[in-house]
């Protein structure tokens, strides 16, 4: 029997969605609503934000809801199909950012300090390559590591109260490829506020950090939008449910700075899967069900999804105050863009 069909990001969701950081030892039965508190981030070239709910949720700027057929499995001769969505017997809503890893690559590649950074990587025997613009995950993992270390040294050199405070004068709106969620504006443009004539590696590190923060603010915007327009609401049991945990997988989830900034900015803990290649695990789970190792996709996910490291948000109220201030600027950058767009449209009318 063959297992088919699943969108790649949905396979990642299958590989992590049932991950629980600290299982409740007193839980006597499965809590069907617990999974509705989780948001899966499949973060690579772009980022997909996936959440499930027990009822239909129509949220502007977010795709769905998509229903997954009963048991999420049905048989055609020698073929196992997974239904339209990710999690059996739930409704899937799906937000996204069109360029995340691709945006970080763009920011780094187009900075004048990028060749010097490449030389540093080679000189430290981290990796040998002759052209910095070679687009491989190995190269960028090394570059991210170098930039992260530069930022850590800058915290000491500048006596900064915490790492994120290094970007108090640099703000990035990451809509370089339009905004998919939650604004759904294909005409949106990227904005970098706070540039100088500095061409050093340190300035590149600051721009990189501000871009990571801009991406994380985009995720915060999506989470807040989902919670305000459906995922936080009254259900039949008169309890509230809302997204309060992030499950991350994909290439960018291997970058500790990317993860910590997301945890701090969104204000949620991030649970990483024990299996680093969650998309492959998701495909393997389908295969396990197809081979009748498990009776259902849900059973296989509960058995094979497992938690690894957990990243917690900062508890210092000063850090939260700083991030909230930058988030206000983040939101204003788009509003200012709309105002500028209107001014120019009127000028050309």
> Helix segment count?
9
Portion in beta strands: 15-25%
Q: From the alpha-carbon coordinates, what is the Rg to the nearest angstrom? A: 21 Å
- Give the termini separation: 62 Å
What topology, given as strand order, has the largest sheet?
4-7-3-2-12-13-14
Which structural class is indicated by helix and strand composition? alpha+beta
Write down the overall mean pLDDT: 85
Silhouette: globular
What is the total tally of β strands? 14
What structural keywords apply?
349 residues, alpha+beta, 3-stranded mixed beta sheet, 9 helices, 14 strands, 41% helix, 17% strand
How would you characterize the overall build of this protein?
The chain has 349 residues and is an alpha+beta fold. The protein is 41% helix and 17% strand. It contains 9 helices and 14 strands. Helix 1 crosses helix 7. The longest helix has 32 residues. About 9% of the residues have low confidence.
Short summary:
The protein has helices spanning 8-16, 101-109, 114-123, 137-157, 201-231, 256-266, 278-290, 297-304, 317-348; strands at 2-3, 38-43, 47-53, 63-67, 74-76, 79-81, 91-97, 171-173, 191-193, 233-234, 240-241, 245-249, 269-273, 307-311.
């Amino acid at each position: 029997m063959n297992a088919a069909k699943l969108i790649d990001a949905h396979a990642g969701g299958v590989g992590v969605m049932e991950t629980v950081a600290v299982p409740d030892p007193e839980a006597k039965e499965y809590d069907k609503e617990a999974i509705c508190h989780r948001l899966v981030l499949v973060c690579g070239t772009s980022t997909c934000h996936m959440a499930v709910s027990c009822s239909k949720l129509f949220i502007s700027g977010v795709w769905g809801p998509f229903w997954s057929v009963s048991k999420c499995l049905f048989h055609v001769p020698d073929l196992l199909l997974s239904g339209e969505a990710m999690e059996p017997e739930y409704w899937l809503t799906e937000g996204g950012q069109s360029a995340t890893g691709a945006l970080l690559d763009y920011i780094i590649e187009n900075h004048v300090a990028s060749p010097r950074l490449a030389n540093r990587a080679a000189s430290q025997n981290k990796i040998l390559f002759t052209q910095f613009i070679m687009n491989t995950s190995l190269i960028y993992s090394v570059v991210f590591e170098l930039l992260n270390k530069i930022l850590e040294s800058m915290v000491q050199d500048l006596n900064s109260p915490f790492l994120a405070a290094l970007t108090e004068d640099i703000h990035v709106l990451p809509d370089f490829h339009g905004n998919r969620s939650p604004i759904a504006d294909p005409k949106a443009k990227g904005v970098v506020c706070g540039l100088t004539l500095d061409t050093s590696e340190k300035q590149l590190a600051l721009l990189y950090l501000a871009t990571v923060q801009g991406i994380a603010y985009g995720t915060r915007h999506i989470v807040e939008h989902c919670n305000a327009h459906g995922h936080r609401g009254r259900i039949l049991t008169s309890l509230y449910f809302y997204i309060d945990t992030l499950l991350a997988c994909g290439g960018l989830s291997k970058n500790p700075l990317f993860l910590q900034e997301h945890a701090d900015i969104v204000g949620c803990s991030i649970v990483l899967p024990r299996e680093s290649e969650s998309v492959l695990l998701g495909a393997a789970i389908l295969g396990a069900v197809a081979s009748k190792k498990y009776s259902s996709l849900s059973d296989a996910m509960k058995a094979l999804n497992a938690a690894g490291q957990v990243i917690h948000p900062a508890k210092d109220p000063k850090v939260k105050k700083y991030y909230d201030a930058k988030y206000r600027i983040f939101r204003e950058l788009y509003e200012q863009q709309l105002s500028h767009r209107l001014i120019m449209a009127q000028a050309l009318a």
